[in-house]
């Protein structure tokens, strides 16, 4: 009887020792890096990266709703779908006037800052497939509230219909000091759209670049956060280097002209 009791006690002690050893091994900078986490030196613990936290939250317990552009319709994207190497969150909508599907591209999610509590901001492309066989592409701006574990769609920038090769690069992170933004996140979006005389059935050939900046006054309140489009003026439109488009002085500015592209000789 006693031998059995002692064996059980020894077994429990061994389990505790092994568990402690494994826990200590996991909570090390090396093991943390191997698990694709990040090491918090102040707390001496391995934490899940913010983009993974957001993905895990949105994929099941707290799906995000996309505000359909040019309407107040909310479309919840709560179905996970993988197309080749790309992971989407998908949602369907159907009203008296329209039917369609929304795809949020989680594989291209980009963080605008590295906060791990309070609010953080991120961007991701999303597509709207309509009953008219249109595929409308947007870049969405989102906030994530760590306390509520909930993401909110705040704003969207339209890229076009049937665009391809969307890529997002974060040019500068958002930086908060003393509860105030001292630098706002800036992204560069490149994509291909159809040229003026190109058929929609053709692969788009026109290269485009779009600069979008986060505008948010209060780091702890996302109510008024939105995108600001930054126009990068090509030098050929500012020959006197006064940072003002020459077309203003010439009185011939045209909203259909992309002033980030070289000026054609007349």
Brief overview:
With 266 residues, the chain is of the alpha+beta class. The chain is built from 4 helices and 17 strands.
Q: Give the biggest sheet.
A: 7 strands, antiparallel
Question: How many helical stretches?
Answer: 4
The percent range for strand residues is: 35-45%
Give the CA-CA distance, first to last residue. 102 Å
Mean pLDDT: 81
Approximately how much helix is present in the residues?
10-25%
What is the β-strand count? 17
Counting copies of identical and different chains, the oligomeric state is: single chain
- Structural class by secondary-structure content: alpha+beta
Radius of gyration: 25 Å
The unreliable regions are 18-25
- SSE arrangement, N to C: HHEEHEEEEEEEEEEEEEEEH
Supply the number of structural domains.
Answer: 2
Silhouette: globular
Description:
The protein has 266 residues and is an alpha+beta fold. The chain has two domains: 1-47, no CATH class; 49-230, no CATH class. The protein contains four helices and 17 strands. The chain has helices at residues 2-26, 29-34, 50-59, 246-250; strands at 38-40, 45-47, 65-67, 74-76, 79-83, 86-94, 99-105, 110-111, 119-130, 135-145, 150-161, 164-172, 175-177, 180-183, 186-193, 206-215, 226-230. The strands form five sheets. Strands 5, 6, 7, 8, 9, 10 and 11 form a seven-stranded antiparallel β-sheet that branches. Strands 12-15-16-17 form a four-stranded antiparallel β-sheet, with no helix packed on it. The protein starts with a helix and ends in a 16-residue tail after the last helix. The relative contact order is 0.09.
């Amino acid at each position: 009887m006693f031998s059995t009791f002692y064996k059980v006690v020894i077994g429990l002690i061994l389990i505790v020792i092994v568990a402690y050893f494994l826990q200590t091994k996991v909570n090390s900078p090396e093991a943390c890096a191997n698990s694709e986490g990040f090491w918090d030196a102040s707390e001496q613990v391995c934490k899940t990266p913010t983009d993974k936290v957001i993905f895990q939250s949105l994929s099941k317990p707290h799906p995000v709703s996309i505000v359909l552009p040019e309407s107040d319709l909310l479309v919840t994207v709560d179905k996970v779908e993988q197309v080749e190497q790309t992971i989407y969150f998908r949602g369907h909508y159907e009203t008296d006037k329209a039917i369609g599907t929304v795809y949020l591209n989680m594989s291209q999610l980009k963080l605008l800052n590295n906060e791990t509590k309070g609010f953080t901001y991120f961007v991701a492309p999303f597509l709207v497939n309509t009953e008219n066989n249109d595929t409308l592409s947007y870049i969405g701006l989102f906030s994530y509230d760590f306390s509520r574990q909930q993401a909110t769609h705040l704003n969207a920038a339209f890229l076009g219909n049937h665009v391809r090769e969307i890529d997002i690069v974060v040019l500068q992170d958002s930086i908060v000091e003393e509860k105030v933004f001292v630098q706002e996140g800036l992204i560069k979006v490149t994509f291909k759209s159809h040229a003026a005389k190109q058929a929609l059935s053709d692969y788009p050939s026109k290269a485009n670049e779009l600069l979008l900046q986060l505008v948010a006054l209060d780091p702890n309140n996302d109510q008024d956060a939105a995108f600001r489009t930054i126009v990068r003026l090509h030098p050929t439109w500012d020959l006197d280097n006064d940072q003002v488009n020459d077309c203003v002085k010439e009185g011939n500015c045209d909203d259909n002209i992309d002033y980030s592209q070289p000026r054609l000789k007349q």
